[in-house]
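User: Please predict the structure of the protein below. I'd like the answer in structure-token form so I can feed it into my own downstream comparison script.

Assistant: Understood. Taking the following sequence of 702 residues as input:
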Amino acid sequence: MKTLKSKTYLTYLFWLGPIFTIMGLTAWVVGGEWSPVALGLLIAGIALIGLWLIFLGSLVPGFWGRRSTQAGTNAIIATLAMVVILGLINFLGVRYAQRIDLTENQLFTLSPLSQMVVKKLQQPVKVWIFSPQPNPADLELLKNYQRYGAKFQYEFVNPQLQPGLAQKFDVKSAGAVYLASGTQRKFLQTVSDAERLSEVKLTNGLEQLSSDRIDKVYFLQGHGERPLEEVEGGLSQAVSALKDKNFTALPLNLAERTEIPQDASLIVVASPERPLFEGEVQALRNYLAMGGSLLVMLDPDSKSGLDSLLAEWGVKLDPGIIIDASGQGRVVGLSPATSLVSNYGNHPITKNFGNNYSLYPVARPVEVTSIKGVTETPLLRTNDQSWEETTPEKQPLQYDPNADRPGPLTLGVALTRKAQPIAASPTPKSEVTATPGALSPSPSASPSPSPAAKGQKDKGQPTASPTPQAQATGSPGATPSPSASSSPSPAAKGQKDKGQPTASPTPQAQATASPGTSPSSSPSPSPAAKGQKEKGQPTASPTPQAQATATPGASPSSSPSPSPVAKGQKEKGQPTASPTPQAQATATPGASPSPSASTSPALANQVKTNPKNPESRLVVIGNSSFTTNGWLEQQLNRDVFLNTVSWLSNRDEQTLSIGPREQKSRRLNLTGLQASLVGWTALFIMPLLGLTTAGIMWWRRR
């Protein structure tokens, strides 16, 4: 009898094992750590359960052979297996989380650009939000950033509880958001109930904080181009977007300054209304040839004067406009003259655009012809139901197979070619005004003495000498660019013989190349200057023109030398007018004139090369309206513009992708009548309809 009671007590002793185990786990959860008490209870519980299992066969004979034991054991094993499987699934779900965002603009998913920016952070960056109450939407956005980058951190701070930290950041009001990385700090925005934390501002702030590179983008002005101010048809939103991306937008007027700035990352030509001067076109041509980048956006009514430059790259813009007859734009209230583009080329600018739309109101097609050495990639392509309308003034618009060109049409193209230093291209625009004691030669390719010049020679009066245009001399290993040449007129010789003031010829551009040399600039001496030097008379110092001479290992430089007429004056001790490059110069006896104008933009940057840009880049788009105020924020227009600028500025190490999207307003503005109708429908009409239907069904089933 006693043996049976002891076995019963030992059977009940088994329950102490699970009880101690549960107590130990509870103590660990409550205490947050494995204390000695929690660990002791857990070990004791597991030990009791183990002893019970060992002596269970002796305490309860035939226990393991029972069917109930086998079924219970199977149930326990299956339960434990299920728990382990669920635990593994939960572990993998936390470790490799996958989210599905069903919103239209993917509001709860970081954009590809934001993901790449936070992944490429080189240093830890922390977001400080000085707000007493964290907003769930802001917290979720910050968690999304942290999922893609381990170096991204954030912290919410109550400025009232931590006034020292708030004073350190110079917090003015609650809700201020700051970015901090090392010793750098940047204010982002102020969050409130009306304005939440913006992904656009946060991503732009991360880019600016992690990169100290600031590129300058020059917008050509002076010919009726798109203004940079906040006006209708202006580019103020584009300028603001460039600023967020560490770009500085500046105007450039080549009529006021004679060269393209050396710090220019690219030049933007935004649909000029009047043609550019030939000198300006030549300056852009030289800038491109030396590794520069150019963005040309031309509307159908634009008169740019860039046809010759674009033709060198195999690009031609058609005069017609693109008509989109697919009807997709009419759904959102757009006219057929607005092209909806969802077909993009395989290029870094557009590689992540997918099938998303970009809008181009009143655009023109771009034709591209293959040119040796030029690599072209179409960026924007219209759909199959578009065409080029050559007579848009005729209404209604209808496709004419005899005059119109069917789609799909190319609206934008990106081109590259290897950068090459070039010699100056002469621009014959020099003019020297002759007054008593001052002489003015006019440009000519090969002048002959005029009667006036002969009379001056006979009477001992000042005589104007001709202006030689250009002379090219070639030597082995170099290829000079072609140019014209001229020699001084007989009038100049008469001045030399009679000792009278003589205007020396103005050499325009003489290119000389020798093997293994780099170009430099130096005009040739004139005989008149030599004559003045020998006779001890005052001689006007010559002004360097555009003569390119290659010197071994030499960098571009300018070294003037006297003209042939100056030799004669030098021998007879008479004053000599110095040659002036494409400018007005005045020479008087005994005076040394100085140039009154500087080199034209056609000669600017003529022999410089940019070692950082091994290739020249050009993007041509048959529309500029998509970058104007109001249109820039539509669909992918902003991304097309910013990615184009980033690629042209040779930011190849940075990601070109789709920028963050902001939430669209989905509010419905109802009139009073519409609001009343909605209310009556919800409160009375729909319930009455349901009751009526139920009543009819009950009556029929009776």
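That's the full token string. Confidence is low (pLDDT under 50) at residues 424-609.
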